[in-house]
Design brief:
The structure is a homodimer of 346-residue chains. Chain A contains 15 helices and 10 strands. By secondary structure, chain A is an alpha+beta fold. In chain A, helix 13 runs antiparallel to helix 14 and helix 13 runs parallel beside helix 15. The mean pLDDT of chain A is 97. The two termini of chain A are 26 Å apart. Chain A has a single domain, classed as Beta-lactamase (3-Layer(aba) Sandwich). In chain A, a hairpin with a 5-residue loop joins strand 9 and strand 10. The interface between A and B is large, with 53 and 53 residues.
Chain lengths: 346, 346
């Protein structure tokens, strides 16, 4: 099966490039309100499921025991850009648990922004593991390990009790069976299990609605979701999609990017979950596709729609700022989304 | 028509992402030796045709009149990274023609490498048009304009005599009719005309073989091609695909990237032209696809093949350098390429 074109990139009157992929929108009751492409074939969710990977930190009582702030909980769910504020927040979590960045197993990464890279170069230094976009998640992992009395060494490996617990949480949330043959290594060295988009969307629909979840699980997810809504900078980056969208819509949406073209969202008011995977793994396609979905499911005003056009209909410009084309939803995707709006199916 | 998967990106035992696209390999006589995907549908070649866009500079006598060096001719064919050597070379061309970077219409662009960006920030400056990856091409345009007595102002517009001449050259080389309805604006503000990959491959096959070309045209193309082979740094960047491949194989190949997933090559010994377009516009796919093609058409030894594996079979690594997957040719593409090798069709 060939997944449909979701996003096209025009230049002049022609389509220059295109992004194929899969979209699943699922209701709290488990119904697939929209399924485009092979929503039943497993994809690696990568960082899009960080909120579920942060559940052991909250549910074990570790977050309270170490007195983590809401901003620190948001960083535990983040793929951040390694800006100064992110790095300071990761250090703060580590110091609360009595560790330092040498305990982080995520590896080092240069910050995304040139100015943050420059600061490191000018100091004659190299980036540390605290600059890694996953440092907050890993710092949260370490909190959970220390609180549970689990070994800190090897916390990132598949057989460690923490990763086994995350495995079980992902199975519970998605209803998918996550066997070793769909397990691989994520960029930050932890296991990642491939999950069909319709199952990922179900997990986020459950996080949005609480359906099929224990009170304790729903309380933990709501706490994490609200922490992200209150601290959207900690979740992403200055000007980043997730930061900007959660800054505007606050608790009306939880939205999270994953590497290789994944994007997931939970919409509590509408009890909906969304999962998107762009075949080519690119962020240009995944951001435009998620913005298009959010225009249908979240935007209430023309201003909301115009705000989301920043990603859903992005001008392609020359280096002198003249418009040469547009990144926009393809006709079939637009039609499917419009139909969803018209029927108010969800 | 859906173009086939050329390159796949694995993680663990699964394919995580994939890149679809079109490949055309054409002989000097015009025969399509390999055609994968819709090789007859026009794509914007973007910077892949810079060698043809540099022909007015050479054929008019401007390059000789202003005493351009081979390194400067190579820069006129380049998409460079704005490193110090590139910027100095662009300035040198401009000073020979009595102009400065304010005459460049390409717009400004930050250099690609962090260290080159850092140098500009430390000086409290902004990047200039000389840092633009197309600055050499534009400096060459200005030489041609001054030499021909054409206005310098507006040299980048579609109706300027220089761009009309380039239009006619592209029609001659490709045999395609390039009407206004396939014309759009390139990132550096000049016109770009969409051309079917099989026609682009034909143009490069002609550049490789001289077939159907005047002696003067072939002499100019050979001069530019040899200048690039002798100065591969000027064509691309430190560690860049085109620089590395032409450093190794010298005059056996002319290879050039274009934006949005385009890659073209001419192989003089085999009288072959190659054109690749990756649907999603990504360089990960286009570099891997071109390296795979060059393994079949250019590599003579196991060392050559291993060298090209750097792009044809790239490990996907964690941030601690552990292998998590591979960027590699898909099965059907591998099979088509192997068949091409086995039959020695070209």
């Amino acid at each position: 099966m060939t997944n449909p074109v979701l996003i096209e990139v025009t230049r002049g009157d022609l389509v220059e490039s295109q992004h194929r992929g899969t979209v699943a929108i699922v209701g709290g009751g488990g119904a697939l309100h929209l399924g485009l492409g092979a929503t039943d074939l497993p994809v690696f969710p990568r960082s899009a499921v960080k909120i579920f990977q942060a559940l052991p930190l909250v549910e074990s009582g570790a977050a309270d025991a170490f007195g983590l702030s809401d901003a620190e909980l948001a960083l535990a769910c983040a793929s951040h850009d390694g800006e100064e504020g992110h790095v300071a927040c990761a250090h703060s979590i580590l110091s609360k648990v009595g560790l330092d960045e040498s305990a982080l197993a995520c590896g080092t990464q240069w910050p995304a922004r040139g100015e943050d890279q420059d600061r490191i170069r000018r100091a004659g230094k190299e980036p540390s593991a605290a600059h890694n976009n996953c440092s907050g998640k890993h710092a949260g992992f370490l909190c959970a390990c220390v609180h549970n009395g689990w070994p800190v060494e090897g916390y990132e490996t598949r057989d460690h009790p923490l990763q086994r617990q995350i495995h079980d949480i992902l199975e519970e949330m998605t209803g998918a069976t996550l066997s070793d043959d769909v397990c691989a290594i994520d960029g930050c060295s932890i296991p990642t299990w491939a999950i069909p988009p319709e199952r990922l969307a179900l997990a986020f629909a459950r996080a949005a609605s609480g359906r099929d979840l224990s009170e304790q699980r729903m309380a933990a997810l709501t706490r994490l979701r609200k922490a992200c809504a209150a601290h959207p900078f900690e979740v992403d980056a200055t000007g980043g999609f997730c930061t900007e969208v959660m800054t505007r819509f606050r608790e009306k949406v939880y939205v999270k990017v994953g590497a290789e073209g994944v994007f997931c969202a939970a919409l509590p008011d509408r009890k909906l979950g969304v999962a998107i995977k762009i075949d080519d793994g690119g962020t240009r396609g995944s951001e435009a596709a998620m913005a298009t979905v959010l225009q249908a499911l979240l935007a209430e005003t023309e201003e909301d729609r115009a705000f989301l056009d920043r990603w859903a209909r992005t001008p392609v410009e020359t280096r002198r700022g003249v418009k040469a084309g547009t990144v926009r939803p393809g006709d079939d995707f637009s039609h499917a989304i419009r139909k969803l709006e018209d029927t108010s199916a969800c």
